[in-house]
Design goal:
46% strand, alpha+beta, 4-stranded mixed sheet
């Protein structure tokens, strides 16, 4: 039926199926050319975009808590008008506004006027758009009140070493603290921030690099990443037995320590340049004895040189008894 109607329309009775297909393709091509030609022309129309405002306002968040739709009558190509119409439901765009263009209405509410918005037309709607007029005289944004404080950065790590290698101290961070910004009730809960987990395995040399800080919900930070470094050295172990003594006991007081000797295992940086254990002393301070429970005390030490990485003492706790008392 449709073929007969098409033949009647064209006044030709002997149209083949191929002729009809060619005709329809030509018709579609002509319509496409006409459509593209028309979209390439300039038109006056309404463009709208949802905006989240950014600005550096003292005492307030740098990002608005709300988004506002900014609509304007613009002259631009049909392509841009068509695309804007179909992008209205997309996520709001962030626009960085100069603080002097934002005026305080009250509390956390700031507004920008149509006259000042004229400076942001290309950021709002794109290039090759000529503004005719904004549909609203002002647009409002809410910038929540914000406080700040400095908190330490803590390294989170999983570290292992090749045999006979170990760390010379803790992981160092630079900077080791950051300033956090946020609403007062959020900052109350933040007493530190942590890095993403550093995974350093089978180390046999010093390690360094950059690690990101884990974000905190509702809070922004002065730095989002820090430099880390970890000194690694080869070590040797030295085992000795040393006497544990009592210090600062009042005159006439005599304290016995059991056992009197401790087994110490030192980890020392390789190569050894001297007997690093000379001059190291382990002792119990009388004040520690007075404040102890049942005379059980952990010894202190003096004279540990720089080349000693760490040590292990056995036993860890010693029993102290004042002579003449049961």
């Amino acid at each position: 039926m449709w073929k007969e109607r098409l033949r009647a329309l064209l006044g030709k009775k002997d149209l083949s199926g191929r002729d009809i297909v060619v005709f329809l393709m030509s018709l579609l091509l002509a319509a496409g050319i006409w459509f593209i030609h028309n979209l390439s022309q300039d038109y006056s129309g309404t463009m709208a975009v949802a905006v989240v405002a950014e600005s550096n306002i003292d005492g307030h968040s740098n990002v608005s808590a709300n988004s506002s739709t900014i609509s304007a009558r613009c002259r631009t190509s049909g392509f841009k008008l068509f695309r804007n119409r179909h992008q209205n439901r997309r996520e709001a765009v962030r626009i960085l506004f100069d603080p002097k263009d934002l005026h305080l209405r009250e509390g956390e509410i700031f507004y920008i006027t149509a006259a000042e918005l004229g400076n942001y037309v290309s950021q709002l709607y794109g290039d090759d758009v000529r503004l005719e007029s904004f549909l609203s005289n002002t647009v409002q944004f809410r910038f929540p009140y914000e406080n700040c404080k400095k908190v330490p950065v803590q390294a989170m790590s999983l570290v292992s070493f090749k045999p006979q290698y170990t760390a010379m101290g803790e992981i160092r961070l630079q900077p080791d603290s950051v300033t956090v910004y946020g609403e007062p009730f959020r900052l109350e809960k933040v007493d530190r921030v942590v890095t993403r987990t550093l995974e350093l395995y089978k180390l046999h040399s010093s390690a360094h690099g950059i690690v990101k800080i884990e974000p905190v919900a509702g809070v922004r930070m002065s730095d989002t990443e820090v430099n880390y470094s970890l000194d690694v050295t080869r070590y040797v172990e030295l085992e000795t037995e040393q006497m544990v003594t009592m210090r600062n006991a009042p005159a006439g007081k005599k304290i016995s320590i059991f056992p009197s000797m401790a087994k110490i295992t030192y980890r020392c940086a390789f190569p050894l340049t001297s007997n690093l254990t000379d001059g190291i002393n382990f002792y119990i301070d009388y004040k520690d004895f007075e404040g102890s429970r049942g005379g059980k005390c952990v010894p202190r030490n003096t004279g540990i040189p720089e080349g000693v990485i760490d040590f292990r003492i056995v036993p860890e706790v010693f029993e102290c008894v004042e002579e003449g008392k049961q």
